[in-house]
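Format notes (please read before filing issues)

Several people have asked whether sequences and structure tokens are stored in separate files. They are not. Every record keeps both together, in the order shown below: the sequence lines, then the token lines. Line labels are part of the format and must not be stripped during preprocessing.
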Amino acid sequence: MQRSTRGGPGEGPESPQGLRRQGNQGQDWRRTLSILFFAQLATAVGFSSIFPFLPLYVKSLGSSMGLSIELLAGLVFSAQALTMMLASPVWGSLADRYGRKLMSVRASFGGAVLLLMMAYVRTGEQLVLLRAIQGLITGTVAANSALLAAQVPRERMGYAMGMLQVGLGAGLAVGPMLGGALADAYGYASAFYVTSVMLALAGLVVLVWVHEDAESLQPRASGERFFSIWRRLLTQRGVSIGYLLRFLSQLGRMMVVPVAPLFVEMLAGDAGGVNSYTGLVIGGASAATTVSSILLGRLGDRLGYRKVAAASALMAGLLYIPQTFVSEVWQLLLLSVFVGAAMGGVIPTISALLASYSGGGEEGSVYGLDNAIRAAARTVAPMVGSWVMLGVGLRATFSVTGALFLLCALIAQAALPAAGKPAKVPPPAPYTRNW
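Then the structure lines:
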């Protein structure tokens, strides 16, 4: 198989291949980053705007087959995660062959069409079916990550992935508030209309303004199958450990989701405002992650992604455990914000590590598998959280989550190859918009 000469393992920024890569790109990667930041923000706002009321939307639609509303409300989330887990690696491999820009545009426009169709469903089963198709068709986070990773110099990968996380985090913070307000004011359908427009706008921006060099695509031997590509990726030094860290960290983040509202209700007692308090706890953590991602991503560029990932996971673990013992909502809020800040050093650095350990020209496959692993963790995490809550108690869920992150820190420090540390570079020049 022909290999790309763009920054694969062993091709640092000072190598002939690395210098040629930077020389050809100039400042284009910064332009691409700005465009993809906007696209990531728009799609995150769009997709997350429907989250607050999906169970209520299912309840309003009812069932045509006599299924319980509780079952349909669970399926509307898990069906999308399951199908995305199955489809993401395939789309990722196709991205390396036919174009990562094409995959980003496909995910955005496909999502726009499907979200528009959801405004017109008549039963809960129809909504679940469209959500399952959504998982098969979409995947903008993985597509944008692969498209960006193919253009960014390896020594700037932490900064770039941190910026994408900022766009994602900001969208996830704004989207639910926007969707909830629209649903209350104009009905559920209005939120789907706005979401569809946001996704179409994101796809249009990428289609018109992002340029993808055809030389970055990886020719494949006609007989090479997807499984062969994935097997080769998983045998590359450090990649499988990076995926393990992604699964464990995503599992830890998501397993407290079904627990948080119940815990806040227990702490608040008869004070009222449980929904507002829960929103503050979750939103505060997301906001802290958004702010810290760019700072800790850049720190990873200078000190090494392995160090930042291990230290951030250690801090997250140490901050989750005290949440077991809080007695007031403000204590939980404060600790959640600190945990969110620590997560800003886990999420983008794992993305940067995957790019650092894998070969150039394989970004689509790398982040397709990464997205599948995120989806797998998202599928099982609520069940694990509920099982822990029922088995050892509500409070103990936070201790178990903290232990998971301490395990992540140990694995990152002990098992990640030292190659995850990029070459030292001077601070980046100020970015001026010249496009």
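For reference, the curators noted about this record: The mean pLDDT is 82. Residues 62 and 68 are 9 Å apart (CA to CA).
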